[in-house]
Design a protein that fits this description.
665 residues; mainly alpha; 68% helix; 0% strand
């Protein structure tokens, strides 16, 4: 109507920066007037209606807010929320409290009008609907929110479902955030209205349970997240939460009425992932029974999907037009891995999952590793030790010639060693070191004429190196030769600063902190720049806490540092000695930065650093070839002492002594 568009025009004017100073007060006055008429109409009946053409002020106001919130220009949403705030405040002032205000039909009509935005076609209208629902959840009373919770939930899930795979500009994420806010509001315990809250929450849970097997991936996964959120808020398990509503999906776990192959592909994946989720709950809520015909038929069909290759699957009518079978296989493998409690099928499931580890497809291989890990969590590795040896033998025979090793084979071997680390001995480690040498040599040769070596060769080396940090057979005896090989390869390929080998190598070294410190601080290795740089990088690593704890609790590694500092404090000093001194100061600084109290606990070391700082020869010594190291040393000593002062504020002498840093040029 003309009245609606006139009011909507006032909304648009209020959103324009230049017109806002005059348009917004005008709009606010109109909204307050319409709101007062609405309240008067509810209190006094039809006598309060306008005499001008029987205008319905509620419809005009709500329609204008709906248009404003669903507009493509999202700046209007801020005006819309401001106007809704004015409506709420006006009604509260008129009736005396928010509880009374929420009983007025005005807000029920507002909610109904705004929720309809979620069912419109355009993404920006849906986003406006989501933002409107968020406003109502935040500003209405709990009783009112509980009364509209189920309608809000359905409308928000429709937004996710309808925009999946479409351009949404973040609307799906907005919808998820609002659903989480709604669940937080409804599920947070409240003693005053616990009965109504429990009834509404039961309806919400029932609605969510029905979506566990939804064919839409985003809806299904987010539904599972929502159930976990409610369980955490209620301090119960998901099984306990779903238990009263298990009949909702009773025919789907497993599917009884229809075979999997008679369903569309998305529906099959939804059923499989829903089955995996429900049968994996702790304590167990659903389980398969091989004595039941429907269960046995479902498991047979499940094994068939996992065992068939792509050619065999593509011959089936329901899979002819699919582009990739990986999503289906992944869902089937995860469902099969959750059946570890079925003793008669356990050996068959193990062989199927292990066969997936041998897949030539990298994605399927990763899924195979994850599902095997899940399967083994429900049973013992020892049960399959002999079978692992028999199945792994063909894989191990390929290690004789490094040309037979590609990234897929290396990743497969890495996955097997992670899953069954105790099934391999030192002989495998010797073979792997030989392979590593050959592949590093090939990588350095291939990178000679190019800017960098071939990435596939680096990936193979990284996958092989990953094995050393997984298997117990990789003892500390391999530490020095392994580091030597890697550092040589990095030097040949100029990869020190961006080496992909650092993470797996550090993972292996951190298994043996005592031996690592002993080797790196040896007389030979401490004079090698690459070794020093690697150790400094390792001490600073986020996962190096075991190494740092060992060094903090074992001060013998710096027992001779005082002698070195005292001798090196005098000039002249060789460049090699200066580099070693700088290396040790880097390590001390890293440990002090990690835990400043440590340096105070090491009284002799703190005394030596303090004396070094007070030594004029230390500050004045000049070495033309290493001035950069000299000034960095001074900075490190200063940083260590200042970190100590920050936890010991009463040591004013130390603070004034640190002012020396400003007296030298």
């Amino acid at each position: 109507t003309q009245s609606t568009w006139a009011l909507t025009s006032a909304f648009l004017c209020a959103a324009i920066k230049d017109l806002r100073p005059c348009a917004l007060p005008f709009l606010a006055n109109i909204v307050r007037h319409f709101t007062m008429l609405s309240v008067a109409n509810y209190v006094f009946g039809s006598t309060a209606k306008s005499s001008i053409q029987n205008i319905n002020h509620d419809d005009i106001l709500l329609e204008s807010i709906s248009i404003c919130m669903g507009h493509e220009e999202k700046e209007l949403c801020k005006i819309g929320e401001l106007i809704m705030n004015i409506i709420v405040d006006t009604v509260v002032d008129l009736v005396g409290s928010k509880d009374r205000a929420c009983r007025l039909p005005l807000f029920d009509s507002l909610a109904e009008k705004l929720v309809l935005c979620c069912y419109e076609r355009s993404w920006f209208v849906k986003q406006g609907g989501c933002l409107s629902v968020r406003f109502l959840i935040d500003n209405m009373t709990l009783v009112w929110v509980l009364g509209h919770a189920l309608g809000f939930l359905r409308s928000l899930f429709f937004v996710i479902l309808d925009l999946s795979g479409e351009v949404s500009n973040g609307t799906i994420d907005v919808s998820k955030d609002v659903i989480n806010k709604l669940l937080m509001r409804c599920a947070t315990p409240c003693d005053i209205m616990s009965s109504q809250q429990n009834n509404v929450l039961a309806s919400i849970i029932k609605e969510l349970v029905s979506e566990v097997t939804n064919s839409n991936n985003i809806v299904r996964h987010f539904t599972m997240e929502c159930l976990n959120t409610i369980a955490n808020l209620k301090s119960v398990s998901v099984s306990e939460l779903i238990s009263p509503h298990k009949e909702v999906i009773g025919d789907m776990i497993p599917p009884r009425k229809h075979k999997l192959r008679n369903q569309p592909l998305n529906a099959q994946i939804g059923l499989l992932e829903g089955n995996t989720y429900c049968t994996s709950l702790e304590p167990s809520l659903f389980s398969y029974d091989l004595s039941i015909t429907e269960h046995q038929a479902y498991l047979t069909e499940l094994c068939g999907i996992c065992e068939c290759d792509d050619i065999q699957i593509s011959k089936l009518p329901c899979y002819k037009d699919i582009k990739s079978t990986i999503p289906l296989r992944a869902a089937a493998l995860k469902c099969l891995a959750s059946c570890h409690y079925l003793t008669p099928l356990r050996d068959k499931i193990f062989r199927i999952l292990f066969k997936t580890l041998d897949s030539t497809d990298d994605k399927l291989q990763i899924v195979g590793f994850e599902t095997m890990k899940q399967f083994l969590s429900g049973c013992s590795n020892a049960d399959f030790r002999n079978e692992v040896h028999n199945i792994s033998r063909p894989l191990l025979t390929t290690l004789g010639d490094h040309k037979h090793i590609n990234y897929n084979v290396a990743t497969r071997l890495s996955g097997v060693t992670k899953l069954f680390p105790h099934s391999f001995n030192e002989r495998l480690c010797d073979q792997l070191i030989d392979l590593l040498k050959k592949w590093l040599n090939d990588a350095s040769i291939s990178g000679t004429g190019n800017d960098k070596p071939i990435s596939s060769e680096l990936e193979i080396c990284t996958a092989i190196l990953n094995i050393f940090r997984e298997i117990p057979a990789a003892s500390s005896k391999l530490l020095e030769p392994l580091v030597t090989i890697i550092l040589k390869g990095e030097r040949d390929m100029c990869l020190e600063t961006s080496s992909p080998f650092r993470a797996p190598l550090i993972g292996y070294l951190l298994r043996y902190p005592a031996e690592t410190v002993e080797v790196f601080f040896g007389e030979t290795m401490s004079y090698e720049e690459q070794w020093r740089n690697l150790f400094v990088h390792m001490v600073k690593h986020k996962d190096a806490q075991p190494l740092r704890l060992y060094m903090e609790s074992s001060p013998h590694w710096f027992k001779d540092i005082g002698v070195m500092f005292n001798s090196h404090g005098m000039s002249p000093i060789s460049i090699q000695q200066l580099e070693v001194e700088y290396f040790i100061l880097q390590v001390i600084t890293s440990l002090t930065k990690n835990r400043p109290t440590w340096l105070l606990e090491q009284v002799p070391l703190y005394y030596q650093l303090h004396q070094l700082w007070m030594n004029d020869n230390f500050h004045n010594r000049q070495s033309p070839d290493a001035l950069h190291i000299h000034w960095r040393e001074i900075g490190l000593v200063c940083k260590c002492l200042f970190l100590v002062y920050k936890i010991n504020h009463n040591d004013f002498n130390l603070l004034f002594e640190l002012l020396r840093v400003f007296t030298y040029r």
